[in-house]
């Protein structure tokens, strides 16, 4: 398959439409989680490089600059061109992503296609960003204008590195904001490849800057930078809180956060148990469990509980874990050693706290970060594995009896990103969907995010919404103009 042969062309920082070495000359390795080999050495951005990138973006945003002078239809054309280029290079992008991240190649292809779709979707918004005219009591003519907020800093994680690149860049560029994006240190290369395509698409210098590096150095420098007007972050709650603090300590950047989750999927006793078990299986095991909306609390009605656990066990045993470039593979490795270790630790905690290990629980092989699809039954709400985000292939199956009870229990979490309910009873489904404290709820399916609809979290799962038209608001200021007549 192509992936094994792809050559890595872009390993430097992308600033002002050029690939450049870091100021310090330092590099770091992007590691293949399948065999722990180095995919490539990458230039490492630190504060001095972030300064350079922000200066380039600031210049691109100056009044009268090439970028500021583009008409909406021209911005739209650039984004459409970028979408075309991403589509043309799907195989290369997906291959690099699989090398760095370990996700099955077919999934990487799907993700890359969705990134192209995202650019195209936001291309369509460029000339539809409108203000209002507002009737007033004093007879003056009042109107509003939506204006780009300024330089946008964007920090992304490694689990969907290509899709998130598009979800961040798309609305920012549609709104007219230049961007400095710091990709996760685990997946810099697929992002640098995308950066090269923005240049090819014809974006003026400084509009898109991609600066790989580590969180506490490069990420923090971006979050604290006084010339960055807006910061958009996807990652852990812990770092999300640091980003907010950095914003407060510097220049009160506008902050959008998309953080973790501990999402419940509630399954009533009127469902087809086979189908429900399959939905729940994919809802937790997709992307090796490394998904912010992973349904990591499976609540199953007591009447079908034992049957459901047995079907889930069969599915987990059948799940094909292995080489992500093998077409039959459903699950690759965890992305890196730290993350792998954390999952293994949680599995040990689950055992110690008295959950019943139904299947899995072990490492696979002794090279690469593969973990068996793992299921715990008889999990109770107070157990650590029912409370913490594990971010791995670990399903916790809990038992419930009534709608009221399960709503209460499902909401008893500091997170609020997503939820699901499987039932043929429309009343139960709607009551659950209305009562659950989460940004997304799926009824009779799960994890079906669409580009056209807002996505984000309640409570500590985040602030603001991405995707859909709401994402544009993250990059726009509203100006009220009042004219005395
Ligand atoms: P994970 O632990 O799953 O890797 P993180 O929230 O730590 O998730 O990382 C998500 C992104 O945030 C990455 O790009 C990472 O480099 C960045 N990051 C980590 N720490 C900080 C920080 N202190 N300031 C800014 N960005 C950070
Ligand atoms: Mg971290």
From TrEMBL:
GO molecular function: oxidoreductase activity, acting on the aldehyde or oxo group of donors, NAD or NADP as acceptor
Oxidoreductase among keywords: yes
Domain of life: Eukaryota
Domain Aldehyde dehydrogenase: 19-481
Annotated catalytic residues: 258
PROSITE patterns associated with the record: ALDEHYDE_DEHYDR_CYS, ALDEHYDE_DEHYDR_GLU
Gene3D superfamilies: Aldehyde Dehydrogenase, Chain A, domain 1, Aldehyde Dehydrogenase, Chain A, domain 2
Family: Belongs to the aldehyde dehydrogenase family.
UniProt protein name: Aldehyde dehydrogenase domain-containing protein
UniProtKB keywords: Oxidoreductase
């Amino acid at each position: 398959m192509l992936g094994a042969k792809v050559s890595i062309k872009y390993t430097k920082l992308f600033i002002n439409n050029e690939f450049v070495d870091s100021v310090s000359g330092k590099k770091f390795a992007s590691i293949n989680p399948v065999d722990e080999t180095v995919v490539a050495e990458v230039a490492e951005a630190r504060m001095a490089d972030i300064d350079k990138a922000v200066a380039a973006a600031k210049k691109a945003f100056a009044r009268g600059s090439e970028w500021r002078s583009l008409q909406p239809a021209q911005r739209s054309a650039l984004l459409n061109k970028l979408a075309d280029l991403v589509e043309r290079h799907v195989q290369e992008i997906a291959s690099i992503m699989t090398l760095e991240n370990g996700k099955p190649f077919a999934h990487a292809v799907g993700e890359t296609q969705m990134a192209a779709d995202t650019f195209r979707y936001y291309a369509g918004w460029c000339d539809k960003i409108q203000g209002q005219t507002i009737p007033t009591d004093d007879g003056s003519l009042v109107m509003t204008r939506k204006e780009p907020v300024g330089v946008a800093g964007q920090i992304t994680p490694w689990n969907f590195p290509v899709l998130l690149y598009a979800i961040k860049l798309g609305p920012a560029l549609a709104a007219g904001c230049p961007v400095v994006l710091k990709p996760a240190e685990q997946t810099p290369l697929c992002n640098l490849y995308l950066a090269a395509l923005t240049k090819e698409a014809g974006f003026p210098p400084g509009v898109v800057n991609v600066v790989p590096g580590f969180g506490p150095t490069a990420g923090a420098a971006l979050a604290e930078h006084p010339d960055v007007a807006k910061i958009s972050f996807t990652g852990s709650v812990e770092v999300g809180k640091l980003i907010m603090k950095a914003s407060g300590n510097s220049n009160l950047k506008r902050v959008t956060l998309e953080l973790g989750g501990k999402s419940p999927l509630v399954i009533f006793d009127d469902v087809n148990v086979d189908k429900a078990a399959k939905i729940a299986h994919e809802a937790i095991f997709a992307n090796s469990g490394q998904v912010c909306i992973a349904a990591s609390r499976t609540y199953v009605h007591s009447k079908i509980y034992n049957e459901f656990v047995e079907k889930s066990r069969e599915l987990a045993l059948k799940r094909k874990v292995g080489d992500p470039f093998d077409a039959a593979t459903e699950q690759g490795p965890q992305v890196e050693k730290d993350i792998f270790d954390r999952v293994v630790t949680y599995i040990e905690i689950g055992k110690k706290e008295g959950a019943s290990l139904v299947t899995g629980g072990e490492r696979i092989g002794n090279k690469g970060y593969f973990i068996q699809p793992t299921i715990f039954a008889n999990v109770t709400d107070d157990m650590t594995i029912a409370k913490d985000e594990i971010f791995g292939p670990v399903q916790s199956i809990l038992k419930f009896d009534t709608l009221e009870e399960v709503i209460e229990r499902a909401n008893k979490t500091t997170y609020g990103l997503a939820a699901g309910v499987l039932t043929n009873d429309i009343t139960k489904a709607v009551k659950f969907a209305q009562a659950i404290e989460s940004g997304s709820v799926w009824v009779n399916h799960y994890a079906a995010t669409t580009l056209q609809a807002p996505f984000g979290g309640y409570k500590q799962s985040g602030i603001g919404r991405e995707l859909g038209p709401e994402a544009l608001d993250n990059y726009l200021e509203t100006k009220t103009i009042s004219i005395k007549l």
